[in-house]
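Can't paste images in this forum, so I'm doing it all in text. The chain is below; anyone willing to post the predicted structure tokens underneath?
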Amino acid sequence: MSPTAAPGVAVEGFLPPSVADGADGRDFGIYLHVPFCRVRCGYCDFNTYTSDELGEGASRSDYAATAVREIELAAHALSDAGVPRREVRTVFVGGGTPTLLAPGELASMLTAVESTWGLAPDVEVTTEANPDSVDADDLVALAEAGFTRVSFGMQSAVPEVLATLDRTHDPERVPQVVRWAREAGLSVSLDLIYGAPGETLEQWQRSVEAVVALEPDHVSAYALVVEDGTKMAAQVRRGELPMPDPDDEADKYELAAALLARAGYDWYEISNFARTPADRCRHNIAYWRSADWWGIGPGAHSHVGGQRWWNVKHPRPYAAQLAAGRLPVAGREMLSAEDREVERILLGVRLAEGLDVGPELADQLSALAGDGLIERGPAVEGRAVLTLRGRLLADAVVRRLT
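Text version of the structure:
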């Protein structure tokens, strides 16, 4: 089915009864989007806003209460569709900079999730944070509220690269916040971006080595993509910055993979590395395995039983819809069986465990193995497991399997 417009929907009848089929066997997670930033980074195209971009009706101080209202309506919609009450296995608070909200406000949203659905005994609760958006007391408060994990947007250890990305923190702050998080009992993930305009291979190596020295539990390393509509895209268009070079980004990925592997980090998804299986981000794994999740907040996306929808983007109409007792939905679509299979391949092939494919794709698997893109042994058994070269060319692998 193609996407349909849904400018705010009543709770009753929003989800078709089919989403309840097999729900007991699917994990359920919650994403909480906090759309506020102090400064908009030049490369970022996420749905975020600085205080100067928001007018009346979109107050940061009211945001937590507004999000709690969506949580309440979400529970009604799931119940109305016959979806059984399931404990939440993962909660991920992203943004934006979630920690621009006070720890008590973040805690109030988590409390609402817990009181509405319950939290699994081994629940993973993550918040993103900038290194300069938290202090030791904040991290202790988050841990006491039930957060188990913090993901710091480090991006680089090199001041010049951070400046190109419009990041505001001092790289010397990162070891400090990592130490504070550990002392609070939180698991730590560090996010890196490679391929920033002007970044040398030596600078990238410094960043990876700085991460390894801090011994986080988890590392994410993403290639910079210059998105249309961003400040960086305009800078590239005007010739002020060079476009990232795919060959350079491939070299940097290979370097990071080698350095992280040497330090004991295993890749479990193309851009994600963990010290142990227990340190993997279970929330993101749920996305890649097409589990159920409800996205709370402006522009947040959700998926339950093949039904996908997304909220209105701006915080002001988002809040207005909720105040009127309506889910703030901008559009939705029901995935067909064919859509689901394409998505299963698109997402599943990125995982280190690989992907089982049908016997009808045996010739494609054999050809991919011959090209060095997937491991030959698993391919014989009908499984696609990416090689290092395959990780660099994952999109090509997906095209040949779909």
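The chain has two domains: 4-334, 337-401. The radius of gyration is 21 Å.
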